[in-house]
Specification:
- The complex is a heterotrimer of chains A (411), B (232) and C (586).
- Chain B contains 6 helices and 2 strands.
- With 232 residues, chain B is mainly alpha-helical.
- Chain B has a two-stranded antiparallel sheet.
- In chain B, helix 2 (73-82) crosses helix 5 and helix 3 packs across helix 5 (163-179).
- The longest helix of chain B is centred in the middle third of the chain and has 19 residues, at 112-130.
- Chain C is α/β, with parallel strands linked by helices.
- Classes of the chains: A mainly alpha (411), B mainly alpha (232), C alpha/beta (586).
- Chains B and C meet through strand 2, helix 4, helix 5 and helix 6 of B and helix 2, helix 3, strand 5, strand 11 and helix 10 of C.
- Chain C: Residues 445-565 form the Glucose-methanol-choline oxidoreductase C-terminal domain.
- Chain C: Belongs to the GMC oxidoreductase family.
- Chain C: Pfam families: GMC_oxred_C (PF05199), GMC_oxred_N (PF00732).
């Protein structure tokens, strides 16, 4: 029944009338597009929490200011309703809007540029089947000259090469599929690679960890010295599929990636990602300075009294329930932002199809002082074979200050 | 109709009344922190002195160590009576009122704060009348104990307020103040917990399951910590 | 002015254990289900995380999680000749409020009733002759065998830890040999026993009894239930009953169902909305929906095809009365059924004091205990004893929260230095052996509407008339003697007996196991609901909860309440939805 029109099938899916152009499209093409969308996690950024999916309006905090994502439903006034396939290709591949203006790279077109035309067309066809929503995007909050899109021409000239993905013939098909997904639609480097002053990826720090929105994204290189060196391929697949594995649990931004994207991907693709990441060697790290003994003693007392109920007195946690801290990549990250933040704010493990319970760590911002949080963070980063290094009370104070607005009425 | 709610979380507030659908409204970052000790005062200076004397007889300082007075129980009771508990905010306080049977529990027309006030006045009036114009707090410990014994034994009645209801409330709030988490203002320095060996606000004893009848030594901890949490 | 809302298929009144079970079941058929809960939304991280959960004053003594008696309570008297007065604060029992209901702050002792408990009237009359004329005991109308699969479902939902004593008829060592046959082993192993349980096990063994681990809804290991929900291992923190579990270790609606249910688009819950009335059509034979009110005092009519009462037993009974469904029971005439057969639980026990052994009961959990069932139900010959029923006897180590527990030996004064010394010396070196006795229905124990006192909306409060019966007292004397025999063998220095004496006192906490009032049975002349918990009078109204128990057995009720909810849900799904109408012809 491949000839059956998408109008019927997609109509059955969403229960809404479709733009005329979708009727020209076959169901397999729409389904393909749906999967492309999953691999790119479009929904995450293009949905304002609590509002209609894909209608945009979510503010992305960048070091330069807040950029609001556009509506990508095919609503003609406020969405993509008047875009042609070619318009869409130019945006995805060249970072250029139909009027010729340049797009901010908060939209990760430097990665989407790796995607071939037929994938991008499929995505376009799928988006065209979504219920159109009328929703105007708020204006970006950027200082001049960044608010002036012409300034992006220079950025693109310096940092952007719109080259499709080139498979490495020396590597397996599986490796190449993983590389395509990671470097292309998956745009993992968006978070997991450090940025330069212009906000572009530092190429020599590829996937070695980054920082955004006051989270430290860990090193995800899987070879020797990489952040995932101690993870097996199975660990990676399980993590992306279920949000948990024996070593950690996903929360914050990664939880959204898993919830909307990776848990819906086929196992073969997750395996391919794992194979690719495991093939990337990391960088040897210098041993951190030894923690102060008094700090460690205080940290041990705080840990014993507050943390052991979930993470267990020896840091072993309860795999897939409560993250083990011994050997944890997040705990050992050179950048302690995530550790401090999780103690301050708590963290909610992503609910997935496999694990629907969002097991949640409580916030300690009201209960522990900066020095106490620093002590317990130092303790977990320096115990049970961990080598994350000490955390200072001023690190905690800084982050507390930065988060103060986001902590809610009791913060 | 609600089928259209789809996957987006929908929260329609109407003050506290809400409709929840489509997602699990669990979020990180919120904390129902305890109300804690507010240091509020309900008692007059004279009432405070009387209550301080009373609690010091119920749980005295002695060879076993400090008692209710040293644990700050009067501060705790004062703060509690000045707050929602004292006002009986969560108690059913609609009339009509009747004395009731013992099996029917608290039937005072007064919420706890009012009952305290009325009974303390009666207690001191009784002491003035029978102990040469002295107040309860001025009496010797033996005299104080004798009065408390008579109240407990229902051998001493107050006018307009039940002496036995007061004694029950006094005893209940004294024990609360002696053994509560220090965050509420009582159990100062965890005096109550140390006396009995209660380790406090802990959440994990798995390492001790095989104690098999042997003593376990763990420092008590309160919701706001213990000395060992501090670096210096 | 009442605003009429768009109709739903099913409205659930109250959103605790039974509400969550019914919602989870009925949404599977695509029905649009709305739960209306008068309390707040509540979840583990936002309301009782480990950072605040172990606060004795706040949660128990200031009763932050229980129904507010300022808004509504009940009045109480021991007998009809007395004037009932309001319970101005909770004492003997603690009705829950908010999402998850009492299931948030239960201990987790999760029992099945005995097969003979379901046929208490016919079984006991058959074996011992007619029951006294005042004993209004009757059969449930449903059998253990019919409920067995539903018990099993609930145990798997909750991850109950225990050891089967009767697996498909085969008696197994180490379990309860008196239990009805179970189709499967418990989903989790028993809890990790401590010193006091070891002593109890040895003592009961010496007496020729059959000790076994108490069935526990506190997780003995990490558990993933059939819905995929995760329950973490219990940490034995000693803050179970009266507290929410901050560690996801105690089965509750929050830990076992809500993560899945809340994501369903055809389910929603309204919080801080109180149902005032079940609305009937002009025939009085059909519920058209409910009237509810929000915190601003706005009143709504919520039409529904099916109305299911899922609130606490006392609230369900009262809502039936306030809605004019059925006739209120009158003990003077014996007429009426709503409010009849109110029963409770008859508790007694003995404290055991050791000289040189530490029980360390702060290392505890709500359902950490060893039990014997030799004296429960009709597990022993009652000939010549003058009572029917019984109870289990257990050594639970649930906690040593110090405001609540100061065990002192016989003869200790209640205050002063001697009291202080006794508390200090015995706090860590004592335990308790308790009898958890049945409560048999009696014509004089009942619920009705109070003529004087009203709730915050001006509606009459429920009035409870209750005292322990001759059967209860004889049973309790017998059980307490058995407790004494066990306690004396546990190797302590001395024991202190806490017998159940005098009239029922509504203030000291005993247990929140209130039953009856909307009882189930075999025909409309002996019951409010039929064997599927469907109202005889209004067939599109179902009533959950322990209110349907015709009398209470010697066990904690939650397991049976939940099994009945699943049983009823199955009947609704398999039969009622296809052919709405009475499931049992009168």
């Amino acid at each position: 029944m491949a000839c059956c029109s998408a109008a019927v099938l997609a109509g059955a899916l969403v229960g809404e009338p479709l733009p005329a152009r979708a009727q020209e499209t076959l169901y397999p093409q729409v389904e393909r597009g749906r999967y492309v969308l999953v691999t790119g996690n479009c929904q995450g950024c293009h949905t304002e929490p609590g509002d209609e999916p894909f209608a945009g309006g979510r503010g992305l905090e960048t070091p330069f200011g807040t950029i609001y994502t556009p509506n990508i439903t095919f609503e003609p006034e406020t969405g993509l309703g008047r875009w042609s396939r070619d318009d869409f290709w130019r945006a995805m591949h060249e970072g250029m809007a139909p009027d010729g203006s340049r797009l901010y790279p908060a939209f990760p077109y430097p990665h989407f540029a790796r995607m071939p035309r037929d994938e991008v067309d499929a995505l376009y066809d799928y988006l065209s089947t979504l219920p159109p929503v009328k929703k105007k995007k708020p204006d970006n909050e950027l200082p001049w000259p960044l608010s002036w899109r012409v300034s992006l021409a220079g950025w693109q000239w310096m940092f952007f090469r719109p080259e499709p993905f080139q498979p490495d013939p020396r590597k397996s098909d599986q490796w190449n599929r993983g590389a395509y997904l990671v470097e292309g639609p998956g745009h993992c480097a968006g978070c997991h690679t450090e940025k330069n002053l212009a906000g572009a990826d530092k190429e020599d720090r590829h996937l070695m960890g980054g920082q955004l929105e006051n989270w430290a994204a860990p090193d995800i290189r899987g070879g020797a010295n990489g952040g995932l060196a101690h993870w097996s391929e199975d660990d990676i697949v399980e993590f992306l599929k279920t949000g948990r594995n024996a070593r950690t649990a996903a929360f914050s931004i990664m939880s959204e990636v898993i919830e909307l994207s990776t848990q819906h991907m086929v196992d073969e693709d997750l395996r391919a990602i794992a194979v690719y990441l495991k093939d990337m060697e990391g960088e040897e790290r210098a041993a951190p300075p030894a923690p102060d003994r008094a700090v460690m003693e205080a940290g041990a007392a705080i840990y014993f009294d507050n943390c052991s109920a979930c993470h267990v007195s020896d840091g072993s946690g309860v795999p897939r329930f409560f993250a083990p801290l011994a050997g944890s990549g997040k705990v050992n990250n050179e950048d302690a932002t995530t550790v401090i933040r999780v103690i301050l704010e708590g963290a909610r493990a992503v609910p997935t199809k496999a694990h629907p319970t969002p097991l949640t760590m409580p916030a300690f911002h009201w209960k522990l002082t900066d020095a106490q949080i620093a002590a317990v963070a130092t303790y977990v980063r320096s115990s049970w074979g961990n080598h994350g290094g000490p955390v200072s009370a001023s690190d905690v104070a800084d982050l507390r200050k930065r988060l103060a607005e986001g902590l809610g009425p009791q913060g | 109709m609600a089928a259209l709610l789809g996957s987006a979380p929908v929260i329609v507030p109407s003050a506290l009344s809400k409709t929840l659908s489509g997602s699990i409204p669990w979020i990180a970052g919120t904390s129902p922190a305890p109300r804690g000790f507010g240091g509020q005062r309900f008692f007059t200076a004279a009432e405070r002195r009387c209550v301080d004397a009373l609690v010091a007889r119920l749980i005295p300082a002695d060879e076993l160590g400090p008692g209710a007075r040293e644990a700050g129980v009067v501060d705790f009771i004062d703060d509690q009576l000045a707050g929602p508990f004292g006002r009986g905010e969560r108690w059913y306080m609609m009339g009509p009122f009747a004395d009731g049977l013992e099996t029917q529990g608290y039937q005072s027309e007064q919420p706890p704060a009012g009952l305290y006030r009325a009974a303390l006045a009666e207690l001191d009036a009784h002491c003035r009348a029978h102990f040469q114009d002295r107040l309860f707090a001025d009496l010797s410990e033996a005299e104080q104990d004798a009065i408390l014994g008579r109240i407990e034994g229902e051998d001493l009645e107050f006018a307009g307020v039940s002496a036995s209801a007061f004694f029950a409330l006094l005893q209940e709030t004294t024990i609360e103040g002696f053994f509560c988490d220090p965050v509420h203002g009582g159990n100062r320095d965890m005096i109550g917990w140390r006396l009995v060996g209660f380790p406090g606000a802990r959440y994990d004893y798995r390492d001790y399951l095989n104690h098999n009848g042997a003593a376990i030594s763990i420092e008590p901890v309160g919701l706001s910590g213990r000395a060992a949490w501090n670096v210096d | 002015m009442t605003r009429k809302l768009p109709p739903v298929d099913v409205v659930l009144v109250g959103f605790g254990w039974t509400g969550a079970i019914l919602a989870q079941e009925l949404t599977q058929d695509g029905l649009q289900v709305l739960a209306i809960e008068r309390g707040a939304w509540r979840d583990t991280p936002s309301h009782f995380p480990t950072t605040v959960a172990q606060d004795e004053l706040r949660w128990y003594w200031r009763k932050e999680m229980f129904q507010s008696t300022a808004r509504e309570t009940l009045t109480f008297r021991n007998s009809r000749g007395e004037t009932a007065l309001p319970m101005r604060r909770w004492g003997s029992f603690l009705p829950g409020e908010g999402v998850g209901g009492g299931g948030v702050h239960w201990n987790g002792q999760t029992w099945r009733f005995l097969p003979s408990d379901f046929v208490a009237a016919s079984h006991n009359a058959g074996r011992y002759g007619p029951l006294g004329p005042e004993m209004t005991v009757q059969d449930y109308g449903v059998t253990y065998d019919e409920l067995e699969p539903h018990y099993d479902r609930f145990e798997k939902l909750c991850g109950i830890g225990g050891r089967a004593g009767n697996l498909n008829g085969e008696i197994r060592a180490g379990g309860n040999p008196f239990e009805g046959p179970r189709s499967a082993e418990y989903p989790n192993p028993p809890m990790h026993m401590t010193f006091a349980q070891h002593r109890f096990e040895a003592a009961t063994g010496e007496l020729g009894l059959k000790p076994f681990p108490g069935p526990s809804a506190n997780m003995s290991q990490p558990y993933v239930n059939p819905l995929g929900c995760q329950l973490a291992p219990c940490t034995y923190c000693g803050f179970c009953e009266k507290y929410g579990c901050g560690n996801y270790s105690k089965a509750s609606a929050q830990t076992t169902i809500l993560p899945v249910l809340m994501r369903k688009p055809n389910f929603s819950v309204k919080t801080h909305n109180e149902v005032l009335q079940v609305k009937l059509d002009s025939t009085g034979r059909r519920a058209t929906g409910v009237i509810h009110v929000d915190q601003n005092g706005e009143e709504y009519e919520q039409p529904a095809d099916l109305v299911i009462l899922c609130a606490y037993q006392l609230s369900n009974t009262r809502l039936m009365m306030l809605s004019g469904i059925g006739e209120i029971y009158d003990p003077a005439t014996g007429d009426g059924l709503v409010g009849k057969n109110y029963c409770y639980q008859v508790m007694s026990g003995a404290d055991v004091f050791f000289d040189d052994k530490y029980t360390n009961e702060f290392v505890g959990a709500g359902a950490l205990g060893m039990c014997v069932d030799d004296y429960n139900g009709d597990n022993f010959d009652h000939s010549g004893l003058g009572f029917i029923g019984g109870g289990y006897i257990a050594c639970w180590t649930t906690h040593s929260r110090p405001i609540e527990r100061q065990r002192t030996p016989e003869g200790t004064p209640t205050w002063g230095s001697a009291w202080k010394k006794a508390v200090a010396e015995n706090f860590l070196k004592s335990t308790n052996v308790g009898a958890h006795g049945a409560s048999m229905a009696h014509a004089g124990n009942h619920l009705d509407l109070d003529p004087t006192y009203t709730d915050v909306y001006g509606r009459p409060l429920m009035r409870m008339t209750f005292d322990f019966t001759a059967n209860d007292r004889a049973m309790s004397v017998f059980l307490t003697e058995r407790v004494r025999e066990i306690a004396e063998r546990m190797g302590g220095r001395e024991i202190r007996l806490n017998p159940r004496e005098g009239p029922y006192d509504s203030m000291p906490y005993q247990t929140t196991h209130n039953t009856g009032g909307t009882i189930m049975g075999t025909n409309p002349s002996n019951s409010v609901v039929n064997r599927y918990l469907q109202s005889w009078d209004v067939p599109n109204l179902f009533v959950m909860g322990a209110g349907v128990f015709p009398q209470n057995a010697g066990y904690n009720p939650t397991g049976t309440v939940a099994a009945l909810a699943y049983w009823s849900a199955d009947a609704i799904r398999a039969r009622y939805l296809r052919n709405p109408g009475p499931l049992v012809q009168a």
